[in-house]
Specification:
Blueprint: H1 2-27, E1 31-35, E2 46-53, E3 58-61, E4 64-66, E5 73-79, E6 83-93, E7 96-106, E8 120-129, E9 153-160, E10 163-168, E11 171-176, E12 180-182, E13 191-193, E14 196-200, E15 204-210, E16 217-222, E17 225-230, E18 233-235, E19 247-253, E20 256-261, E21 269-274, E22 277-283, E23 294-299, H2 316-333, E24 337-340, H3 350-359, E25 364-371, E26 385-389, H4 395-409, E27 413-418, E28 430-438, H5 442-449, H6 451-470
Parallel strand pairs: 13-18, 23-24, 23-25, 25-28, 26-27
Antiparallel strand pairs: 1-2, 2-5, 3-4, 3-6, 6-7, 8-9, 8-12, 9-10, 10-11, 14-15, 15-22, 16-17, 17-20, 19-20, 21-22, 26-28
Bound molecules: zinc ion.
């Protein structure tokens, strides 16, 4: 009994503390600036102050009024001059005045990076690739070409900074020096591939081409056709027509060969070398149902990586995870096999997220994010929903998700965008990245915080996925 009384008194004391805390929260003023940091250098002629104060406070920045939203959030775009900017933010609630003084610096001239030497040092040698999936680029830091695979042999013509310049098709490409080493074997002037064979399993068709030497590949995917070119290789296949139920035609000419699948679009492919055999792995066309599909959901950021942070200090990683969990439930209910790259607030490397999806043999990979802007832009003008793809085959999935998400969230339709991101670059699975809304637009942010909306957005994304499969073939 005495023990119970003690418990009761602890309970009331705790309740008292909560009430006092709540009263203090409502009656006291506060002024938190989430962005930018005091002393920051801003490389633009404007920035935005993002933070929170008492919802009933009046606020100003250098005397200019700042709108305070019902959750206490503020987002104020502010022009800056070159050099040092002294800024005073004032929030007043009754007699409680909070003042924050900040300094921001705008550089007078854009910071000049010393022009790195672009001198090509001749280096004529045959080199062998030592890294799987590393990028091959048009220029040392330019656009990516078909990724390289371990064991490929190619002809270097020179070294430029830390890149090998190598022969690629009729032109040249660049490989980071760390990803290759001198080869024992000479690069063949020309090799002729005269044999292609096919086999298949439940999910994939494999086209296998025997070569004298594994060489750089150039794989181009358009609609339902894969066109393959291999360095120094001409094709003279004996069997000119091969068919399976899922792969309707195959053709070749001297310097390339093509394979097309029997659907409107490709839905995943990859290539690799098995010794000297070039293997093209093509996913069979999807059935029209979400049931049985393997879907990997990637809640963006996590752990030490917060993503962007909203005015009331909720990090993007939390909202991404909540929407992702609702999406996981909805897709599971629809009959899909769903896996998450993270289920809690932990850090996961970007490349590990892709590898996870590939190990699960995912049909599609969908990364969930929310957006922000750099300095110099205005989150009251630029905001809304966008969906990113990189591989042409992923565009129709991106379009379907974008259309169905817009229907339920009513945000601005920023459209489907082409973007080279770690989570959009895989050719297998079909991969997209969704930016549901803007963390730094006060209206979208407030909407994103509500569980009922997070659920609604997940349903929109699910509808997009269901529709994608329904219209696939
Ligand atoms: Zn993000």
């Amino acid at each position: 009994m005495l023990n119970n009384l003690k418990k009761l008194s602890v309970f009331f004391a705790a309740l008292g503390i909560i009430f006092v805390a709540l009263y203090a929260y409502a009656s006291c003023n506060r002024l938190v600036v989430v962005y930018p940091k005091d002393g920051a250098t801003i490389k633009a002629n404007s920035t935005f102050f993002i933070g929170n104060t008492n919802p009933n406070a009046t606020m100003s920045v250098n005397g200019e009024a700042v709108k305070v939203y019902s959750n206490g959030a503020f987002v104020r775009v502010f022009s800056l001059k070159k050099g040092k900017n002294e800024i005073t933010l004032v929030s007043q609630f009754n007699d409680d005045v909070k003042i924050k003084k900040m300094s921001l610096y705008v550089p007078y001239a854009p910071a000049t990076t010393p022009a790195s030497s672009q001198v090509l040092v001749p280096y004529n040698a045959s080199i062998v690739v030592t890294e799987e999936e590393a990028p091959l680029r048009k220029t040392p830091y330019g656009d990516r070409l078909t990724p390289i695979k371990e064991g490929m042999i190619c002809q270097s013509v020179g070294i430029i900074n830390n890149h090998y310049k190598v022969k690629y098709g009729d032109g040249f490409a660049y490989i980071l020096k760390n990803f290759a080493k001198p080869a024992d074997e000479m690069v063949l002037d020309k090799q002729v591939a005269d044999k292609i064979s096919f086999h298949e399993d439940k999910k994939y068709i494999y086209a296998v081409v025997s070569l004298a030497q594994p060489v750089l590949a150039d794989i181009d995917a358009k609609n339902n056709i894969l066109n393959v070119k291999l360095n120094n290789t001409s094709f003279n296949f004996k069997d000119t027509q091969k068919k399976t139920s899922d792969m309707s035609i195959f053709s070749f000419n001297d310097d390339s060969f093509s394979i097309s699948v029997s659907a409107k679009n490709l839905n995943g492919y990859d290539y690799y070398y098995e010794g000297k055999k070039f293997v093209l792995k093509i996913r069979k066309p999807f059935s029209n149902y979400v049931e049985g599909k393997v879907i990997v959901i990637d809640p963006g950021h996590g752990g030490k990586e917060c993503g962007s942070i909203g005015p009331t200090e909720v990090p993007e990683k939390d909202i991404n995870l909540k929407i992702s969990k609702y999406l996981q439930d909805e897709l599971t209910k629809a009959g899909a096999h769903v896996y998450m790259t993270r289920e809690s607030d932990v850090y996961v490397d970007l490349y590990d997220r892709v590898e996870f999806a590939q190990k699960k043999h995912a049909d599609i990979l969908i990364s969930i994010h929310n957006n922000a802007l750099p300095d110099g832009q205005n989150p009251y003008i630029t905001h809304g929903t966008s969906t990113y793809y990189f591989q042409p085959q992923a565009k129709i999935l991106a379009q379907s998700v974008q259309k169905n998400l817009i229907k339920v969230n009513g945000f601005n339709d920023l459209g489907v965008k082409y973007g080279s991101l770690v989570l959009t670059r895989p050719t297998n699975p079909v991969s997209i990245l969704v930016e549901v809304g803007f963390m730094i637009n006060p209206f979208e942010y407030e909407a994103l915080l509500k569980p009922e909306n997070q659920f609604k957005y997940a349903v929109g994304i699910k509808n997009g996925i269901v529709e994608y499969f329904k219209n696939f073939s």
